Structures are given as C-alpha cells and as structure tokens.
C-alpha cells in the first residue's frame, strides 16, 4: 500500500494506523501531520496540466496543454474526448461521406460556430460534457460505431496556442492564449482492441491514418493530431486524484442563465472515471478551527460528488473578488473532502493561487488523510 509522505521529514517514533481500505490488513505508517503541495502550473500563462495522486504527491505528472488533442477511452466502450485545456471544439460535417472530398469551403459556415467562449448556449454541443460524463454525452464526438460508414466526418477546432511563458502578464490576470491552432478534419473507426483515426488538413485530398490500441492500465490513450503520434498524458487510471488545468466549462450570466462554453483558468478536475469523489465543506469565518477539527467520523457520504469532475472545479477560488476585497484570491471560508479510487479519505484546503508578486498560476494546497 502507498502512504502519504511528510514534507517536513519530521518523523516521530510512534506509529498510527491510517488510511486503510476495509479489506486491507492494518500496517504501520509514519505519523501524518499534513503536507503542502505546490501545483507547478507554470505562472500566469498556465502552460501545464498537473496530475496529482495524494498518495504519492511528490511525483506529479506534468504535461504541456498542447501535448495532446484527442483521448481514446481504454475501457469497453468506444468513446473519444477532445482537449478541454486548449479550448478545442468539434462538429459533424453535414452530408460528408468521404474525408478526402471535404474542403475548407464546405465548412466555412461551421467555423464561426464551432468555437468556445461565444456566449451562445448553442456552442455547448461542440464540446465534451463539462461534467466529464463522456460515456453518455450527446455533445462532442459521438460513440464510435462498428459499421465504418456510420461514423461521421468531423470538423475539429484545435483550440488555442499557449501564450509565451515569458510574456508580461498583469498581476492578478492570466493569459491562456488567443492564437488559433488551426483546423483538422477527422474520422474515427473501430479497430481490433482500439481505434483507427483518419485525419488531414481541411484542403488535403488524402488523409493520414493511425491505429491507437487500448491500454487498459489507463483511462485514456492520447494522440497529437499535429505530430501524428500517440503521447502519454494522464497517469495510470488509479494513480491520480485531481488535476490543475485550464478547462472548458459552462458559464452562466445568472442563475439558470447559461451563456454556453467558456475557457477557465485555475481549474481543478477530479478523476471521476476511476471513482474519485469530492465535496465542499463550508467553514464560515473559522476555517482554521473547522479544518483542524474535521475527522473521519465527520465525513458525510451522501455529499460526495462522483458524477461531475468539477466537484472542486473553480469553487476554491474567485477571480473577481468581492466588493470589499477585489481581485483574485482563494476563498477563506471552505475546504474539501476527497475520496480516492482506493477508498481512502482526505481533507484539503487551498492556501494560495498567486506568488508574492501577485502573479497567478502559483497554486498550493495542504491536505491530510482521514
């Protein structure tokens, strides 16, 4: 069994029994007094996705947001996701049956619609379910059919290039990139224990093809459309709990008033595909006391959110502040409870989202096993 390490390296001689699955024999582990994690997102341009396993937090997996475009589900179903960390979008091309015959002129009217952040509720159909419910979603790329001819040809908006990490960004702001990465046309078919992807530039008259095999040790196998190569992104399916990332979600202009898809900075997703759940604890004005006193017997199983990867999402911070305290800061009145894929419980509180100079993209949190 893995156990959480202590940053301070202060080890007492006593041992405790903590963080065991119900079917595990108890083992002795060093006393755990809590640990602080710096999420190396990379500053205000936030170039990195950071995948963190609370049971092995000193070894996060980090990739550039532009390292991948498509994720191919490695489970029994045949589903494909797009990269929400670079504001990708996708749409079926009407009446298209031959990928080689599709030209840019055929999709010109679609290109203005297949976008993120247009403040139009209709654009939600062009992104993956922000909840992460890819197996049942009716947006994005539909389930891959056994019959090749039933699989549509898609127009793919490759999203945004990342901003120069050395650019000057005003304190308290972010720059996630504005330059477009371009377009592709794709068709995805089933293959033996995997997928066959056909892809090309919009005006190309021949397509390239690649076969992606399912690796069941991972939730998804990833592919880069620009390099034409597979790439390793997420850790193995149960080896991450939460990730810091830019993220395409739904934005609201008021209660119940959706404005469609929007590109968020400083976002956190949880590994719902592997059964990770989380919920928020409202602590009011006494955060230190409430966090310190929260024990395993205080966990409310009914509050865990297992069907929405945004259980933490943007709820840990504000980017507009309040009337009395403007600007971006971590909410001082809440913490979170997380249950990982192996059934272990943790409490988390977020300490900062900026460095000493006020630059965003420098998040940290502390956690303790329960």
Automatic annotation (TrEMBL):
<protein>
    <recommendedName>
        <fullName>HmuY protein</fullName>
    </recommendedName>
</protein>
<dbReference type="InterPro" id="IPR025921">
    <property type="entry name" value="HmuY"/>
</dbReference>
<feature type="signal peptide">
    <location>
        <begin position="1"/>
        <end position="21"/>
    </location>
</feature>
<dbReference type="Pfam" id="PF14064">
    <property type="entry name" value="HmuY"/>
</dbReference>
<keyword id="KW-0732">Signal</keyword>
